[in-house]
Write a structure and sequence with these properties.
Blueprint lengths: L8 E4 L4 E3 H17 L7 E5 L4 H12 L3 E5 L5 H11 L1 E6 L4 H7 L8 E4 L2 H9 L14 E6 L7 E6 H8 L5
Parallel strand pairs: 3-4, 3-5, 5-6
Antiparallel strand pairs: 1-2, 7-8
Helix pairs in contact: 1-2, 1-5
Length: 175
């Protein structure tokens, strides 16, 4: 879509608006940053923030390098977060500044968590330093998105979606 209609609005929020070209470039930069941090295809990257443009960028960046994005409910408390991060075997997290403290508090209990990128100045600096070129990684419609559901009967449960299914069903692209 970024190649076909680069100047069309892709994401509009109360705080920001990105065209498809801008979204593609920022997602490329984040993808390249994640690669530089050692994130490999199939590894899990948690996105721990409320709805924001950076959440969308992270989602697409993960797919660009065949990493598995994981949603983290920003309302979860320490015990739920410790469980979710461990259960998901998160290798990296992109976290909003207001939730970074709890990540620091539980990171010692998360042996698979190798890196944290905080939204804000740190995030923008990482993007500025990374290449805007699309990563040269063969992609697959079978790449995964790990969606954690929160319920009233216990801890969150991870549900695997193929990326093709996310785009066609969950994001209503079939319409």
């Amino acid at each position: 879509i970024a190649d076909a209609v680069p100047d069309r609005a892709a994401v509009i929020t109360n705080d920001a608006e990105l065209t498809y070209r801008q979204l593609d470039e920022r997602a490329n930069r984040l993808a390249n940053h994640l690669l530089s941090e050692g994130i490999a295809p199939g590894e899990h990257v948690a996105v721990h923030a409320a709805n924001c443009v950076e959440w969308v960028e992270a989602f697409f960046a993960c797919f660009k390098i065949r990493a598995v994005p994981i949603n983290v409910n920003y309302r979860y408390v320490e015990g739920e977060l410790r469980y979710l991060y461990a259960n998901a075997e998160a290798a990296f997290t992109i976290v909003a500044d207001e939730y970074a403290g709890v990540i620091s508090a539980i990171s010692g209990d998360l042996p698979t968590l190798r890196g944290v990128l905080r939204l804000g100045a740190e995030y923008e600096a990482a993007l500025a330093a990374a290449s805007p070129q699309r990563p040269r990684i063969q992609r697959s419609s079978d790449d995964l998105y790990l969606l954690y559901t929160g319920g009233t009967t216990g801890m969150p449960k991870g549900v695997m979606w193929r990326c093709e299914d996310v785009f066609m069903a969950a994001m209503n692209a079939a319409r």
